[in-house]
Amino acid sequence: MLLTLYKSALRPIEIKALLKLKIKGHAYAPPKESLEKLATSLNDKAFCYAALGKVSRSFSAVIQQLPDGLKDTIGIFYLVLRALDTIEDDMNFPLEKKLPLLVDFYKISNNQNFSLSGVGDNKDYEVLLENYPKVYRTFTLLSKDDQEIITDISRRMGEGMAEFAQKEILTMDDFNRYCHYVAGLVGIGLTRLFISNNPDALDLKVKDEISNSMGLFLQKTNIIRDYHEDLYSDRTFWPKEIWGQHVNNLEYLAQNNKDPESLACLNHIIADALRHVPDCLTYMSSVKDEKIFGFIAVPQVMAIATLAKLYNNPKVLTGVVKVRKGLAAKLMMYSINLKDVTKYFEKSIRQIEKKNKSGIPSYQETKKVLDNIKSYF
Ligand code: MG
User: Fold this and answer.
1) Which one from 227, 295, 311, 345 is the annotated catalytic residue?
2) pLDDT tens, 283-293?
């Protein structure tokens, strides 16, 4: 906490937000007991909220901003997809069992007796799957329309995950499609759920393509930030079509993080992620519901601030680079509007521009993307 406060020392609003979050955070924080123990005492809905808090502290905090009816829907949507992702991510789960489960998850899980034990690389995820009937029963209380949307998205996501469980991400098309399955579909599903709960939530009928970009922007940012962590796990997500233009293997970046080739590669993949920014700005400007706006805009602002920090930064290739917790706290504690968001984006774009001096690797490529983004402000 002290170090976090120090990093925000010149930003009094962030300090206030950090303290506010620390106090208010107790209200959002999941109960102290293990999820396993809670499963025996809590009713279905209370278990779902406890699980949300355990599997994602930050998501559980932003979800509190949503209107009451929508909160349950989005919470269940998140848990269903978390269950699917748990199956995808468990690298000890044999492929011959994993693939049919991913493909048929939307059908099999639509049953009050469905549960799995021993799957998941984290205890809370494992407990979630063991107690899936509680999630299912809460799911059945949602409107029929919402149930259909969630089922449709989990069907498409499961199919995509199964496809990529067997192959590497080589081309840009692979990269975009994989990100579509695991994140773009979340954007598409969220948009449909927002509209089903409030037809006026969004100004214009947002096209799937724009909703998809919202997810791709967040997913690509995470993939870039997690380069080093993923390098030592069983899967990597950087497409060969990008790194192959700069280096002979992905490990080279970590071993030679200050080489111009390594930085060119990093900047290249960041420029690709930045290409989604115009769609994200278009999407956010179409959201009319204030609470929904906060819910979707906070992660977007965190993502652009992250990319500004990662650009041309060799530390990304050898460890973890994150934005100040104070910024996250401020975004979560104070409501933001489109004007604030535009300001945050402009500021981050300016930071990238400042680092993108002529002569640095990928200068031209990034400049083109930045100039295009600036025409949207
Ligand atoms: Mg996954």
Assistant:
1) 295
2) 999 999 999 99
